[in-house]
Amino acid sequence: MTTPLYSLSITDRPTLDLHSLNNESREGNQIQTRMVNVIDQRGELHNVNAISGDMFKHIQAEHLFHIAKANPDLPLCAGCREFNANRINADTDFIARTKGMSDADTVSEMLRTCALDDIEGILITEGNRSVPRKSVVEFGWVVGVPGSVETDSYFHVKYANERGSSRRSEDREATQSSGSNLGQAIFHRPASSGIYAAVCHLELARIGFNDITQEYAVDANQRALRTRALLESVLYTFMQPKGAMRSAQAPHLVNLEGAVSVSSAPVPAPTVSPLKDEYREQMARVVGTMERITPGATTVYTFDEMNGFAEIIAYLLENSVPYEMRYA
Ligand SMILES: [Zn+2]
Question: How far is the CA of 116 from the centre of ligand 1 (A)?
């Protein structure tokens, strides 16, 4: 039996060791790690390192791009076919053919033209317009659980092959005159290890949905294909968190535990931040209470390792379709 999915929440704790997915800036030869303030479950303030939701959204969008590129049934606009950050604004043909169209018609044409812009959201600004599409997928900060996360800074050297005095002064002059970086250099690079708290939410009912006309611009089959691609891309985001410094500091993904909650009617998929230790039990209790409000509408699945998460996504791919909103 296939279950309609209205919304889906992923709440999890990845254990990531020795990564620098969250480098934000450089001061001299010191690379800075992004730090944020959070309040823990006992109301105490902590300063911990964190990876921004933008980074995870970008990782997910890139996985979705690769899935869509490999599937001729998933349309991409000219911008997204090259993973251009301007997306449909870089599609000159789209911009030309929607010139003079109403905002509602422009959104419908965008939804038909590009699965990536449909799912990730876009602000169409080209041609002096401002037509928004709100993203179907949302990520929160992936933030260190207080007391279970640490950042250290490590010393690195870029060695020069030849260090004779004439070569050193030549390199120094080149560095000053042209900005090239030929000389020997020292730098400090951070690596963080810890248990992180991640939240992600998918509004599956909105896939292909024009928020202005309150109608779907693509058919049920296309919506099912896009839902499938989105769920797959979210799975890959946690399996392979891409990001900064991966060439030398790819993260050790030690474990992934968490919960996936889904709703099959217009109610939110319950979620509790994994910054709280008992988040999975809390979510199960909320689902239990929801049975008294909207029986059968919400379900929660928990997992203790990466494969458990993959199994839940595989189960949902095999047994669900996106919910269809219908207004009389
Ligand atoms: Zn696009």
Answer: 5
Ligand 1 center–CA 207 separation, angstroms:
14
DSSP, collapsed to helix, strand or coil, labels residue 234 as helix
CA of 79 to the centre of ligand 1 (A): 6
What letter would DSSP give residue 2? P
Largest CA distance in the chain: 82
CA 114 to ligand 1 center in whole angstroms = 5
Alpha helices for 21-154 (secondary structure H): 53-70, 78-81, 92-97, 103-113, 115-120
Does an H or E element contain 127, and which?
A: none
Strands 3-5 and 320-322: parallel
For residues 20 and 200, the model is more confident at 200
Task: Compute the distance from residue 55 Cα to the ligand 1 centre, in Å.
Answer: 19
Long-range pairs, 43-48, Cβ under 8 A, ≥24: 44/146, 46/146, 46/147, 48/143, 48/144, 48/145, 48/146, 48/149, 48/194
Q: What is the pLDDT of residue 113?
A: 98
pLDDT in tens, 111-134: 999 999 999 999 999 888 999 999
CA–CA distance, 125 with 177 (Å, rounded to integer): 40
Percent pLDDT > 70 in the chain is 93
Query: How confident is the model over 143-198, as pLDDT tens digits?
Result: 999 999 888 877 777 777 766 777 777 767 766 776 666 667 777 778 889 999 99
Dist. CA 241–CA 222, nearest whole Å: 27
